[in-house]
Amino acid sequence: MNSEGRKYVVLLFFIIVTVIYTTRLFYMQVIDDSWTLRAQQIAEKRKQITPPRGVVFDRFGKKIVTNKTFFNLMMTEEKITHLDTNAFAKLIGWTPHKVKSRFWEIKLGEGVYHNPHSGKTTSNYQKMRSYPFVKEIGLEQMSKIAPYLHNFPGFYEEITSMRSYPYANAANILGYLSEVTKEEIDVDNFYRPSDAIGRAGLEKFYEKELRGIKGIHYVVTSALNNAIEPYANGKYDTTAQQGPPLKLGVSINLQAYGEKLLKNKRGCIVAIEPKTGEILALVSAPSFDPNLFVGRKNISKNYPKLLKDPNKPLYPRPLSAEYPPGSTFKLIQSLVGLQEGVITPGSGFPCTKSMVGCHNHPSATTLAKAIQYSCNPYYYHLVKRIIQQGKRKKNTEDSEIGLNKWAKYMNSFGFGISLETDINGVRPGLIPNSKYYDKWYGHHNWAFSTIRSISIGQGEVKSTPLQLANLAAIIANRGWYYVPHFVKSIGKKGPLPIYRKKKYTMVRGKHFGPIIEGMRRVVNEKGGTGSQAKMDSIIVCGKTGTVQNPHGKDHSVFIAFAPKEQPKIAIAVFIENAGFGGTWAAPIARLMMEKFILGKIVNKEKEERILKSDLDGVKKNKE
Amino acid sequence: MRNESFSKTIDWGLLSVFLLMILIGVANVYSAAFDPKSPELFDFSQKYGKQIMWVGISLFLGLMVFLIEASIYRKFAIPIYLACLALLVVVLFMPSVNGARAWIGIGSLGIQPAEFAKIGTAIALSSYINSINVKQQSVNTVIVANIILVIPMLLILLQPDAGTFVVFTSFLFVMYREGITYDPIVLQLINLIPGVKFKKTWVGSHFIPILFVVIFLSIITLLMSNNTITFTFLPGIEIPGFFGVIGSLFTIALISFLVLRWFSSKREQNRVTMIVIIGFVLCSFISTFVNFSFQGLRKHQKDRIELFLGLREDPDGEDYNRNRAMAAVGSGGLTGKGYKNASVASVESNHVPESETDFIFCPLAEEWGFIGSLAIMGMFLFMLIRIIKIAERQKSRFNRVYAYSVAMIIFYHFAVNIGMNIGFAPVIGIPLPFFSYGGSSMMSFSVMIFILLKLDSQRGDLLS
Question: Looking at this predicted complex, what is its ipTM?
């Protein structure tokens, strides 16, 4: 039998096997990089050096957020020999049971390897790896533990840094940090388990800046998990860089004073520097100490408590609370009236109480006086002229055009839109337009008379305290504003670009004169509603508001700016369930302005009255 | 005068690729076993120093082989074979190292008789096949040839050394090439059936390659159908492993069809087409059959097979070696991480165990990438084809059988060793010829090649 042809069978085998292997090698080495990832998992270790977060200064250079050194107690199971659980538990102040359950928690919870080929997941816990056994131990406790740690091989300390707040104020502005979640790690590979991330306030908004740049050292590790050498001679290594410092427009002293004034009250104060749009103080009462939210233990202890508090200390009132603006809204109605030419500064309307109620006051013969007396019927007539300009025969059609124009004016003043300040959670308030009312009453089925309560800042209109403070700033600036913001500078850079853009309202600067005069009268002339805000040395311009509250006592509102010429501060004060605007909001605003402009309080008695009051009781009694 | 004719008659192609592989092999062992404390290449306390020593000894043995008449192997075939068997018996009384009695001598200077038994068996088989009548294929011939094979295999299994045991089945291919197949036995069995009278059977004649294809295909099917094929460049595209197997088969069929058509004469083209189509259909059928019958197995049966093939999802336990080896190979990329820059397979990191012996391909593939891997594949394929070419030009049947033996042994080592580095073969500890660290394998493979070169150079001297 001739077997010579069989050499081809043999050759074919050689060639086919080589070709299959080469193809496989090409697939493994060049096309599919899951093995590269696996190799990194096995042999490369990214040693991350987390830099301390950027610090935060107030407008006068006071450090209000800094970093404090803490320790993690690390564990390497392989190096543990004859652990005396009881002695160890005693050292770290735990129960032996807790020590044991923490072991299991680490073993079951940490490090999971996901095989991309089969989709199977296996635990990647390794005895030779280090895991944090106890997190966030303070310097004091660590100094007690450290001397005895050598008795427990396999445990060692690792230094970390955490936030610290030298002032117990501005928690609502600064926000807090907490451990990253698994989802956040998946989205952003910057984070590693047990890293901290900004959860609220500026910490959250400026997370990318504050966290800095991680230093990464790539090292080749052995099967025993010892680092052998820098990977590729350190070619890919980076050094850690601390996040740039933030400088705020906030004055921490003013903020602290505001929080002090609002003790035992619910409400808020927003103060803005008109010429820059920088927020000087943003008080949300009740407030809390930001140090309550430092570290896992504190957060898990205090967060639920504050969350359950009926006074909602975690609710960002100045940004999110949407109240009717009340009489403070009359200022903007006046401005629109002048710009639209439906009134002149000299216009007067009779105080006819048939359509809207009013209090007894001398007759409002000029616009400035109308503001001074806060005459409701005056604004009924004024806004009727704005909304129904007689461009259509039918009132309903006329109102539709008028209202939509009016709404555009409002938007240009920052009402009904979100003022995108650099803290999340800003609400837009509500400025109704024709579509809004069409939904309620039907198309062309309503006219000014239906919606008249908007003329005095009641009814459907809603605004946030931030928007009211911004209104005061706009009037102080005579027609423009910068979006209110907290951060003046990020390292060497100025504020974010959106805070450098001047925004103009639809009302010309020349129309602001009479309104400012009205505001001056409110505070400084006899019969003005805001005389409680009067200061001896400085001319304050303000406007009171009393917001009708169907659920209880009216809210007390006051907006103001001072001094009249070259204003330094614009302010809105909103005290819940405190009644008439002139009684509580106006004096508080005055104290704040005094504190900021003069740096001291002249009238100590007035301060005493505010500090001793306990308006919080209203809510407590009701419940 | 003699030297001159020797230099003319020697096969420089084979000698060159052999020397090149040994050179790269030493460089690679230097990287794989590098100790920064003694960076001297000739430090004989280190593995690379020793490997150089082994290479030196091997080359010296090669020189001896060149000086000795080639006919000696034929004449002393039986004593050589018996000496190898004797060593295989002696080794069984040696102390056990790592659970196997494979070494004679102490420590790193010991030798492994199993490595040399391959040469002895190759010579014995060549001598026996040379002595029998080509035309006469009786049951007896098959039995005697198999006995020559089975005795060393059983002795090796007693050590135990499963890897070398498997390698000995390579001689079945040599016998196949020489027409000594199981056909006579199959015929006898078939002809027992009343009324049946075959003179030969196709299955019986080609039993060995068919078996090989079935085993190889089954292993690959099982290994690949367990995985999903993904592409880094084409995210989202996932091919189930089983379709990958069928697709690969089709690609191979298409390529071999084109290649074979190119080389075959017009007359043969239809036959070639038929063979390729039938081959593809049969292979697909086997693959499908294996895949679905595996799915249908009971759980404990499945577990046993999965354990053997290393399919268990246990990257840090059962499957540790293969997982680390594949990570090392796969992370090499196109151009590799650079010489002495392996991070998984380096000796310091020690993630891949035995990275200087059985897993020597890991540091190579990791440091030189696909380019390096391709070069290794190319060198082996060149060497194998070259040896077959040498085999086919021998006038002496002894020489031819011997050459085929060498080719098949090297092929087995190559296929199994690389296969276990890329997840295509179960982890069986056998060295990669010319690359793995170790005196016995270096000496036996070198002597094997030198004897072949000597036989080839004297092919014209005397006809036997």
Answer: 0.89
